[in-house]
Structures are given as C-alpha cells and as structure tokens.
Write a structure and sequence with these properties.
Layout lengths: L29 H4 L9 E6 L10 E2 L6 E2 L1 H17 L7 E3 L7 H5 L2 H16 L4 E3 L3 H6 L2 H5 L17 E6 L2 E5 L15 H13 L27 H16 L3 E5 L18 H10 L4 E6 L6 E4 L5 E4 L12 E7 L3 E8 L4 E4 L2 H29 L4 H7 L1 H27 L28
Parallel strand pairs: 1-4, 4-5, 7-8, 8-9, 9-11
Antiparallel strand pairs: 1-12, 2-3, 6-7, 10-11, 12-13, 13-14
Bound molecules: zinc ion (2 copies).
Length: 451
C-alpha cells in the first residue's frame, strides 16, 4: 500500500469531550491524585499512544487542524520514561497503544531505522522493563503483518491467533489486561490479492462509495467509521474474547480491555470508531461486572465516556500533536479497591473504584419493580372492588405472615450478593501478594512473549 492513498485518522474536529483534555500544564492533576498519594499502590504501569515518530519535518495533519511534531515525539517519550522511572511509585510495564511510527516513514523508506530510534528511546531509560505494543493503522502502513509478527512489536503469543496479534496477561491477582487486534479484519498490512483484503474492501464499498476509501465525505453519524484507516474484529477474535472474559469472570478477575480503535461512539469522533464496535460493545456489556475499562488511542483528540453498564471508555490523546511544553501520557496505579489513572498534560486523571452505590441503586431498582408489579397486579385490582385495607390484610394473613419475612430474607440475600460483588472489585492482594517493583521481579509468565 502506498502512503499517497492514506488519509490520516486525525480528522476529528470536535470530539465530544475534548475540553476534558485541554489541560495545558504537563503537571499531574494533583487535586485528584492527592487523595491516594500516601497509600502505596499494589503496582503501577504506564500508558502512551499515537507517538507517530518519524525523522521528518513537522507538518499539518490531513485536515490542517493540528501540527504533527514528528521529531518532538521522541523527546516526549523520553520525558514520559523519565517521569515513570523517577516517579514516587515506579512502574512495572508500559502499554503502547499503537501508531508508534508515522506512515510517512514508509514514504521515506525509513520504517526500520525510525522504529529502532523510538524503541531505543524507551529502552535507554526503562532498560528491560516490558513495553507491550498493540498495532495501529500506521504500523500497517509501514510493515506487513508477517513483518510485524516477526519483529519487536510482537508482544503476545500469536501461535493460535496469527496473523492477528491479540493476547492477555495478568497484571496482579484479580486484574487482567486483554489486548485486542482492531485491524484483524482490514485492508491494511495484507496483500491486495488476500481474502481479508477483498472482504474488507467489499464491506467498505458497500457503505462508502467515495473515490478514495479513506474519504468520509457524504457519510453521516456512525456511518463515518467506514473508511480504510479503520478496521474490525473477526468472529474468531470475538469468540476468543468471550472465552477470556468468561474465564476471568469465573476467576473473579477484573479486566481492562485495550485496542487501538475506540469502540464507544461517545468516547471518540465517529470517524475513528471500530467497524463492528457494536458487536464488541454488546459482548463487553454481558460481562459488565468483569470489564472495568476499554482504553484506546487512534482519535488524536482523545475522549472519555462512562457507559450505561458502568464501563469506562478512555481514548488517550496523541503524543505527536502535543503543543510545545505539553505531553500526553498516563500512569495507572492499581490499589486494593480502585484504579487511579493519573494523566499528565493533555490527559485528565480518572478513578475507577468500587461500585458499591451502583449495585445498591440496582438493588433498589429491582425492589421498586417488585413493589410496582404487586401494586398493579394485586393491590389495585383488589382495591377497585371497593374492599378496605383491613379486609385485604385479614384475607391475606398467610401471605402477610409468610410474605414479609420472605421479602426481608430475599432483600438481605440480594443485598449481600451485591455487596459481595462490589467487594470483588478489590484486587486480591492477600492470597498471593506480588510486589512488582523492578523488571527482574516480574515473573516470566507476565512478560511479553517476544519483545
Ligand atoms: Zn494515530
Ligand atoms: Zn490510528
């Protein structure tokens, strides 16, 4: 694929939550972080995305809204690594959410050397600390899937998923990361004669008849996602995700799902949505008490939305479009009963905590439904016959005598169950406490497969 056909994915003009990320100061949002700063987290890890490094002069993005400072990206990564290294709580690993180098490297024929420069930027400060990479569209502009699978950006065991690149690992007892390949079904990084290319182009052409498949002109709302710089997930990966979530649920684990492309329309510009976002979202909603968050990149302006199933959707703003003196990375601190995502620069700070009140409200709703049903189906028909409350009580003594204790018992059981589930948010540090502080402390099974 030639880069002349590439329309950039940074055409988001007015994301719904851009103002949340407008903090011009690179300092940590102290007001939110202070609350927990005296309590040591179980462990911490770094988040960074859309670095787009290239040894190339700065230039405007496709829609001329943001300047891409390609070389400055390396400085910002360096700054992030030093921040993580010297932070109060050292990190255990970094999640790099894709678009590590820019598509322009392919035009310049510097893909390999530019990739080495930016990887070295991580390595020189963090040494052997694991950096888990997931693939964005710009990885696929520079390399084929086979090249990526055999290169330093392959972070998971792909024996069964190849040529897709997805995987999972345990962060600490009761907390797991699941990394998705959001370009498994796409026309990028594969030969024009391949089956997946043909099927992807067929889907694109069905929804987007513009001359360039990267041009969203004429598309409205969610339909704008049908552009070539996006992709989707096949049923094979969906089934794998379902298996992983079922196992996690059975083990009482909580899960953070990561992918390059966002999956919730309220957490990004619709132009940057996964093709089959609804299918993935529906699956995550089945496991709403297991999945805590979905974290993505791709939309360079970022976004945030807490959905109706209480899953946090965080789209991180891009490094490459940071204004001077600003950065864009985050540190996730894992506490016993919450996650604190401490943003720097363009990223705000978020807390994902024990949802006791959420479950309590759910229980009250259920109770309310039972009461309403009783009133409508039993009480109102009875009263409409002109009988008194006393009369009702007398004729229903067995119900009252047996029903009230049963209702109380029922409510206690439900409440206990909900409180137990709420408590299950606590990441289990008692059974098997892992004090991961230095790279050498990380058990082999938690390290990337081949990074
Ligand atoms: Zn990007
Ligand atoms: Zn992207």
């Amino acid at each position: 694929m030639t880069t002349s056909t590439i329309t950039e994915d940074e055409t988001s003009v007015s994301p719904p939550t851009a103002s949340m990320f407008a903090a011009p100061d690179p300092d940590v949002n102290q007001s939110t972080f202070e609350r927990n700063e005296t309590i040591e987290p179980i462990l911490s890890f770094g988040l960074i995305t859309d670095i787009h490094y290239a040894d190339h002069d700065d230039r405007w993005n496709h829609v001329q809204t943001h300047l891409r400072r390609y070389r400055n990206s390396a400085n910002l990564v360096d700054e992030a690594c030093h921040y993580w290294l010297n932070g109060k709580y050292p990190i255990s690993f970094v999640l790099q959410l894709g678009d590590l180098i820019d598509g322009v490297c392919s035009t310049n024929k510097t893909s390999g050397s530019d990739l080495n420069v930016i990887l070295e930027q991580f390595k020189k400060t963090l040494n052997s600390l694991p950096v888990y990479h997931i693939w964005g569209n710009h990885e696929l502009y520079n390399f084929t899937r086979q090249e990526l699978l055999n290169g330093p950006l392959c972070s998971f065991d792909t024996k069964t998923s190849s040529p897709a690149h997805y995987g999972t690992f345990e962060v600490c007892p009761n907390l797991r990361i699941i990394a998705l390949d959001t370009y498994e079904f796409s026309a990028l990084g594969v030969g024009n004669d391949s089956e997946v290319y043909g099927q992807s182009m067929e889907l694109l052409r069905k929804h987007n008849q513009n001359e360039s498949p990267n041009d969203p002109t004429g598309l409205r709302g969610h339909q704008r996602r049908y552009v070539q710089f996006n992709g989707g997930i096949t049923s094979k990966q969906i089934n794998w995700l379902k298996e992983q979530l079922t196992e996690a649920k059975n083990r009482d684990e909580k899960v953070i799902v990561i992918g390059h492309i966002p999956i919730h329309p309220s957490a990004c510009d619709h132009l940057d949505l996964l093709w089959n976002y609804k299918e993935v979202l529906d699956l995550l909603w089945i496991f709403d008490r297991t999945v805590l968050a979905y974290i993505a990149g791709h939309d360079h302006d970022g976004g945030y939305f807490r959905d109706r199933k209480n899953i946090h959707h965080l789209t991180l703003p891009a490094i490459v479009e940071c204004d001077p003196n600003t950065n864009s990375f985050a540190t996730v601190h894992v506490y016993k009963d919450c996650l604190l995502i401490e943003g720097v620069g363009r990223i705000a700070t978020y807390k994902i905590d024990c949802q006791f009140f959420f479950y309590l409200i759910e229980t009250m709703r259920l109770y309310n439904r039972v009461v309403l049903m009783h009133r409508k189906q039993i009480w109102q028909p009875w009263m409409s016959q002109g009988r008194s409350v006393l009369n009702y009580s007398m004729e229903h003594i067995p119900h009252v005598v047996l029903g009230i204790p049963f209702a109380v018992f029922f409510m206690v059981v439900i409440a206990s169950k909900e409180i137990y589930k709420a408590n299950a948010y606590q990441f289990n540090v008692y059974k098997r406490r892992l004090m991961i502080r230095r790279p050498e402390d990380i058990p082999t099974e938690y390290r990337p497969f081949c990074s």
